[in-house]
Design goal:
heterodimer, A: mainly alpha, 58% helix, B: alpha/beta, nine-stranded mixed sheet, five-stranded parallel sheet, 46% helix
């Protein structure tokens, strides 16, 4: 059994952004979380790559400016990885 | 597709499957709220041992930030001079250091501004006053011709590039040394993943890879010409983790980060293998369990013939671990046994098993009994005369490890995987056993502790302390600092905690500068007795000015204290002050929580307290009209004249 993707992303974001997980929602973004600056954004991307064992494309990273955006990119990856 | 499907399709990380890590995070936060510092530290270190990744690093750093004021860990200031993005490495290296009991402050130079920062004495680098600087430059940045364009250049041009790069590197090292006393760690250059000449590159005498190897060889020679300059074998690090998997080309092009996320921890870990020994935060001893650690199986049940140890699988895994421990022993790390066992069963294996590499003589202390391991580790530290923070613990049993982490958070508990075939590697990769220089004392340390046990037997056999001192037949050599004793003196200055009056730490370079200044005299002391040579075991630094001799540093290794050698050394220093024309000798005692054995030293040698500032005290002795400390009659003192280096 694994945690749902939202939980995994939220827990990583909570660690990297040093913010309680309860305060992170799918709508969270650099606008709503003060710690989410450009340095922490890179750290967040890297921590997600480590967690999910993937390397994101620059185009994907551009879409990952919010928790919702991150989940959408991960969904896209899962779609590709699913056997036809 | 829903997010739930993501979990089913994407690889499952250990973290997701592991509820223990979430529990440890919650535990750490709960202990933090309760103010239970030891337990919080134990939970954080257990978490790091379990999953040393990027998000855990951020978690550890934020929690340790809150513990900093209470813990008062030794600190180290690290400057990173770089030609690429290193910011994501900072939480990794800080978290790893915190877990190893070291508090790092990290400065990163401006992008590609390392040359200016080294050269300009007013730069932010020098204003930061680092203890250690890491020069992290890449082949592609300082030798681009050798990284991708080498098909375009001929042999003569290649030689010119090699000359240019080696000259540059040598120049930066010399400039840094001239402007800073910090230690310098220099990355060497990595070879290209696929040389442009293809397989031909390995045939030609002057291939692309060979050109880089020549630069690396010259870098090694250049580093050896300076005190406190060390080479980090970046080329080997990349190869160890897979050259083809090391990089992330997209991130290099977009954010200047050439290293893939999965390898950031590896580079940070490699830095720690330098930072820990440079800070003196290393393990002086490792206490090992026996059953299922040094051998497979349980000797009490399987018997000597039934345990797994030898050349075949799975006994070879345990043999390999013993080989690594033997390497540590040769490096001067003391070995001890901490095992729940019947002593007769265990000793039978240690003495008689044909494949044991480690024998009773390799162990400086043994606790083979049924007591709590926490109690046994405390006793081992006391017997070896080292702090708990200088002790590492190796045990296959996760319950024992967790127990020790919770009760003795200072002890460095190594995280052993379930698979014994991987035990040796864990020990080999630990930063806690690294040494940057080996002194003659390191190589003889095991023997020295054996001689100590013989001395202890003698002490128990004689009637009075005086009789003991006399029977030891101690001879001491006191000499100025020389090029050949500099490393050992710096080592003592950085790791002696107990008999150390001021605990001032100096790098090799700082010590060399101190010794070279006319205002200062540095002395070392060597002690021999009928049981053997203890080697170089003490350092004193004193400066005489305006008739006052000021003792800056006075320390002795714990292995010779309590045998009146300290009195002999002080009597020499007093005589030295008199000959320098001083009328008074004085020195501070600065308490650290660890140097209680030295607290009464000045008072018991006729000094009077002159001044008290908070918990520090300044002690003085007027050379005229006082009873001066004299060298005990049972110590033969030999003074070697000469100049400091």
């Amino acid at each position: 059994m694994t945690e749902p993707a939202f939980e995994r992303v939220r827990n990583i974001a909570a660690d990297v952004l040093n913010t309680p997980p309860q305060q992170i929602t799918s709508q969270s973004s650099p606008e709503t979380i003060a710690e989410w600056d450009s340095v922490q954004h890179l750290n967040l991307i890297l921590a997600l790559e480590e967690e999910f064992g993937i390397q994101f494309e620059p185009e994907e990273i551009e879409q990952m400016g919010s928790i919702e955006g991150i989940l959408a990119v991960l969904d896209g990856r899962a779609e590709q990885a699913r056997p036809a | 597709m829903t997010s739930a499907a993501v979990d089913a399709t994407l690889t499952t990380s250990p973290r997701a499957a592991d509820r223990g890590a979430a529990q440890l995070r919650a535990d750490a936060d709960r202990y933090l709220v309760d103010g239970n510092v030891n337990a919080a530290r134990g939970a954080l270190n257990a978490l790091w041992a379990r999953e040393a990744g990027g998000s855990t690093a951020a978690f550890l750093v934020s929690r340790y930030e809150r513990l900093r004021p209470v813990l008062q860990l030794p600190t180290q200031r690290v400057a990173i001079l770089r030609s690429f993005t290193v910011e994501p490495l900072v939480p990794f290296v800080r978290a790893g250091a915190f877990a190893g009991g070291l508090d790092l402050s990290v400065y990163t130079s401006d992008f590609n501004a390392y040359v200016q920062e080294i050269l300009d004495p007013g730069s932010r680098l020098h204003a930061f006053e680092p203890d250690v600087a890491i020069l992290a430059v890449q082949t592609r940045d300082i030798a681009p011709e050798l990284w991708r364009d080498s098909a375009d250049i001929d042999q003569k041009q290649t030689a010119a590039v090699v000359t240019r790069v080696t000259t540059e590197l040598r120049g930066w090292i010399a400039s840094f040394r001239a402007r800073s006393q910090a230690s310098l760690v220099v990355h060497n250059l990595e070879e290209p993943v696929a040389p442009s000449g293809g397989v031909l590159d390995a045939q030609a005498g002057e291939g692309q890879s060979e050109a880089i190897r020549r630069i690396n060889r010259d870098l090694q020679a250049a580093a050896a010409e300076h005190a406190g300059v060390y080479v980090l074998d970046y080329n080997a690090l990349v190869a160890r983790h897979g050259r083809a998997r090391w990089h992330d080309e997209r991130k290099r092009l977009t954010v200047g980060l050439p290293i893939a996320a999965e390898n950031l921890g590896h580079l940070a870990g490699e830095w720690l293998r330098y930072l820990h020994p440079l800070a003196g935060r290393v393990a002086k001893a490792v206490a090992v369990d026996l059953d299922n650690t040094l051998w497979g199986g349980v000797v009490g049940e399987d018997g000597r013939a039934g345990i797994k140890l030898g050349m075949e699988y799975p006994g070879a895994a345990y043999l390999e671990l013993q080989r690594v421990l033997l390497d540590l022993h040769r490096r001067g790390v003391l070995l001890a046994i901490c095992s729940k066992n019947n002593p007769e069963d265990a000793m039978d294996v240690l003495e008689n098993h044909p494949h044991m590499l480690l024998r009773p003589a390799h162990f400086a202390a043994m606790r083979i009994n049924w007591n709590d391991k926490v109690r046994n580790l405390r006793e081992i530290a006391r017997e070896l005369n080292i702090g708990l923070d200088a002790l590492a613990f190796l045990d296959d049993n996760p319950v024992e490890r967790q127990h020790v982490r919770g009760q003795l958070p200072e002890v460095h508990v190594l995280e052993l995987p379930a698979d014994a075939m991987r035990f040796a590697r864990v020990v080999r990769e630990s930063a806690m056993f690294e040494r940057l220089r080996l002194t003659a004392e390191d190589e003889r340390r095991g023997a020295i502790y054996q001689e100590q046990r013989e001395r202890d037997h003698l002490l128990q056999a004689v009637a009075s302390p005086e009789e003991f001192y006399r029977s030891l037949q101690q001879e001491v050599d006191i000499a100025p600092l020389t090029a050949s004793t500099l490393s050992r003196c710096a080592q003592l200055i950085n790791k002696t905690n107990q008999f150390n009056l001021t605990t001032r730490r100096y790098s090799e370079q700082q010590l060399r500068d101190l010794a070279g200044s006319p205002a200062c005299d540095c002395f070392s002391i060597r002690v021999r007795d009928r049981f053997g040579d203890n080697g170089l075991v003490g350092v004193a630094i004193a400066g005489c000015q305006d008739g006052v001799c000021d003792i800056d540093t006075f320390l002795l290794s714990c292995r010779v204290i309590g045998r009146t050698v300290e009195t002999a050394f002080l009597s020499f220093l007093v005589e030295h002050a008199r000959r320098r024309g001083a009328h008074r000798i004085q020195g501070w005692f600065i308490p650290t929580g660890k140097n209680a054995p030295a607290s009464a030293f000045y008072a018991s040698h006729g000094f009077t307290e002159q001044l008290r500032e908070e918990d520090r005290s300044l002690w003085r002795l007027d050379l005229a009209g006082s009873v001066l400390p004299r060298c005990p009659e049972w110590v033969t003192i030999r003074i070697i004249e000469g100049q400091n280096v």
